[in-house]
Each structure stands twice: as structure tokens, then as C-alpha cells.
Design brief:
Layout lengths: L2 H12 L9 H5 L7 H9 L1 H13 L6 E8 L2 E4 L5 H4 L3 E9 L2 E2 L1 E5 L2 E5 L8 E6 L16 H5 L3 H16 L4 H17 L21
Helix pairs in contact: 1-7, 4-7, 7-8
Length: 212
């Protein structure tokens, strides 16, 4: 689902207005930006939406990414043929660095990694979590990402995000109903697949031996 489609559905179902004229194309054209009934929801949708996306991220409900590294000495960066977007992507944390079936000791410095105890003859990969940016009404039309392709956020997860955003839109006017939506959304989030570490080292390799 595209970000714009998710925003539209959050407003449509979160504002609780039975308006058959509130359509996606009209919303994208800005026809409702100054509409008295919709303006409040359009302005306020961003905080709970970003909060829901980041809630999924910190609960490990968004898949990890794996990238092959380019190594110079013991300093690793993204491969030279990586796109600018891949090379400059915000990394929330590094889950694993591995070479074949062996984990590689490392220290992170920004988007660079200092590696220890690796072979120079085999490719090295990093498994990491993306730091999802905050979206707002000023940039989402020009930054209309496909959330599935970009971050691995499924259609199912988007449905649960809508439930979460309903809570944010109702918080001031109907706090009890808002609490119910938040509780249901958290239960839904808990039911999503959890993505911990995708790499598990199957073989323990000795570094030091007795007598050496």
C-alpha cells in the first residue's frame, strides 16, 4: 500500500463521516484541505500515523534487510553499486554481520562498520533495521513510498495501523472510544509476525586453543 493510500484510509475511517464524495483522487488534489469537516483530521493524522509505524518498528514487526558490504581494509560500507538511497539510508540498528555461516565481530560508526576477525576472500553481509522517517503533509505527495516495497509493511499491518490512527483522531473528542481503538490496535500489532535475527550461527569456531 502506498503512503498516500494509507493516509487517505486513516482519514476516511478515522473521521467517521459518511461522505461519498471523499474519494482518493479528490483527497490527493487537495479538494478537502480546507473542508471544515475534514481539515482537523487531515492536520492531525500524521502524529498517530508516524507513531504507529515506529511502534511496529521497535516491536520488530517490520522485516530486517540484508545488504552485501564493500570492505576496504577492516572498514565496511555498502557496496559500490548500491543506489544513493541505499547508501544513505538511515539505519536504526545493525542486527548481524556475517560471512558464510560465521558471525563477524564489528563496531558501528555511523553507516560504516569496523570489522574484526574476518576472511578477505568471501563476501560479507549485514542484517539491519531501517529507521523509518517521520512523514508529514508537506512531503508525502512527493515522497509517496510504497510501504510494502520500501519497508516490508504488509497490507495486514496497514489495516492495523488504521485502527491505531483512529485512536489518535478521537483522543480529544471521545477519549473512551479512543482507548478502545488503541487497545485493539495493540492486540493486532502483537499478532503480527516478529522479525528478530534472520541469521543464526550454526557452527562455533574456536579462536584460541589451549597451548597457543
Amino acid at each position: 500500500m502506498k503512503l498516500s493510500e494509507l493516509v487517505f484510509q486513516c482519514i476516511k475511517y478515522g473521521a467517521y463521516l459518511s461522505d461519498t464524495n471523499f474519494l482518493y483522487d479528490a483527497f490527493m488534489n487537495g479538494d478537502f484541505d480546507n473542508d471544515v469537516e475534514y481539515k482537523d483530521a487531515i492536520d492531525k493524522v500524521w502524529f498517530p500515523l508516524n507513531e504507529a509505524l515506529h511502534r511496529l518498528a521497535v516491536k520488530d514487526k517490520i522485516p530486517n534487510r540484508v545488504v552485501e558490504l564493500s570492505v576496504d581494509g577492516n572498514v565496511a560500507t555498502f557496496k559500490e553499486d548500491a543506489t544513493d538511497e541505499e547508501r544513505n539510508i538511515a539505519i536504526r540498528n545493525i542486527r548481524n554481520v556475517f560471512q558464510g555461516s560465521k558471525k563477524i565481530a564489528h563496531r558501528r560508526v555511523g553507516n560504516m562498520l569496523i570489522l574484526y576477525g574476518f576472511s578477505g576472500s568471501k563476501p560479507i553481509f549485514a542484517e539491519y533495521k531501517v529507521d523509518i522517517p517521520n512523514f508529514d503533509k508537506d512531503n508525502f505527495k512527493s515522497n509517496d513510498k510504497d510501504l510494502g516495497e520500501e519497508y516490508g509493511i504488509t497490507e495486514t499491518a496497514c489495516s492495523f495501523i488504521i485502527e491505531y490512527v483512529k485512536s489518535g483522531l478521537l483522543e480529544e473528542i471521545q477519549p473512551e472510544m479512543a482507548y478502545q481503538h488503541r487497545t485493539v490496535a495493540e492486540q493486532y500489532f502483537a499478532d503480527l509476525d516478529t522479525y528478530n535475527n534472520g541469521f543464526e550461527q550454526m557452527v562455533v569456531q574456536s579462536v584460541y586453543r589451549i597451548g597457543e
